[in-house]
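Figure 6 in text form: structure in, sequence out.
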């Protein structure tokens, strides 16, 4: 092991690319500093990239991609990765994970259990699809987070109402993606995967009067033991999307056992750190340093 100064010299440059500064971005910066790195903070809003350049300022950089905006995230990843930077997560991961339908298909292909889902591309075929899937069902935008615009459709009347609203929205919302309502306890599991390890997991209990378990909707976090079964499913899910640093969301289906409903490529982990006391930012920095050197 070299000294901290040697480490800075010998390691590729490290950068954190963001569009919002949350607890996670600050914690990553602090963890990098603590380990002797001097990370560059790149605000995506002030970044411009000449896509024809051969000499590129971030070419030998290892970049932790933290942009919340799906569109900024995948396009900035494509530009930076395309010019030779080592971006975590890579474009393959970000473009799949940002979209629930793409993720569903990749998980399915890899044999990972997911909630039953069905897609349709017009109002009338959406209703026909729901007749086949059955009620209650869940409608989700293919791109979105924090539980936004996700609704339970208890019957055909409710479905018609929501689907009619969708007809007046941006075209993305006319791609209908429905899931069976999974019969589960009032909680889900968020597991954080760094490289090939499940480093921590929490249960998220939905707030009173709320069925979604997003922290953004007031859920309560509790430590969740990482069993062998949970570990296996999470690693399979992460591999299915070429994940490097991901948050896997799972439900405990009463009928099917653990099912994965989402893989987050710019995962939040503030509450997981608080509840489990695992140094997730530190582990991420060590992982990207290691992986960026190969
Ligand atoms: N098929 C489902 N059955 C029951 N609850 C679900 C289902 N899908 C999602 N949920 C609940 O809704 C929350 C948000 O769904 P998710 O797919 O993770 O979208 P988001 O990206 O907005 O977090 C989940 O954390 C879970 O509590
Ligand atoms: Mg989620």
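Output sequence:
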């Amino acid at each position: 092991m070299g000294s901290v100064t040697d480490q800075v010299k010998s390691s590729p440059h490290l950068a954190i690319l963001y569009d919002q500064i949350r607890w996670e971005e600050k914690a990553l910066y602090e963890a990098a500093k603590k380990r002797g790195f001097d990370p560059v903070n790149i605000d995506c809003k002030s970044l411009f990239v000449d896509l024809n350049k051969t000499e590129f300022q971030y070419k030998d950089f290892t970049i932790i991609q933290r942009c919340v905006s799906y569109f900024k995230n995948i396009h900035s990843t494509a530009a930076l990765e395309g010019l030779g930077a080592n971006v975590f997560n890579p474009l393959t991961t970000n473009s799949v994970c940002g979209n629930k339908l793409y993720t569903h298909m990749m998980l399915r292909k890899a044999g990972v259990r997911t909630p039953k889902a069905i897609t349709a591309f017009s109002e009338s075929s959406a209703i026909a699809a729901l007749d086949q899937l059955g009620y209650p069902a869940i409608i989700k935008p293919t791109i979105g987070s924090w539980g936004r615009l996700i609704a339970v459709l208890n019957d055909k009347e409710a479905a018609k109402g929501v689907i009619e609203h969708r007809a007046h929205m941006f075209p993305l919302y006319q791609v209908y993606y429905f899931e069976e309502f999974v019969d589960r306890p009032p909680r889900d599991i968020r597991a954080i995967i760094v490289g090939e390890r499940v480093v921590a997991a929490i249960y998220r209990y939905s707030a009173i009067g709320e069925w979604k378990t997003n922290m953004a909707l007031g859920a309560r976090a509790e430590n969740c033991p990482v069993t062998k079964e949970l570990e296996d499913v999470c690693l399979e899910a992460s591999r299915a999307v070429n994940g490097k640093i991901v948050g896997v969301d799972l439900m405990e289906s009463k009928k099917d056992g653990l099912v994965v409903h989402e893989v987050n490529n710019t995962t939040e982990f503030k509450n997981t750190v608080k509840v489990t006391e695992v140094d997730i930012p530190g582990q991420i920095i060590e992982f990207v340093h290691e992986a960026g050197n190969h």
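Caption detail: Residues 115, 138, 140, 144-148, 150, 179-182, 188, 212-214, 249, 261-262 surround adenosine-5'-diphosphate (ligand 1) (CB under 6 Å).
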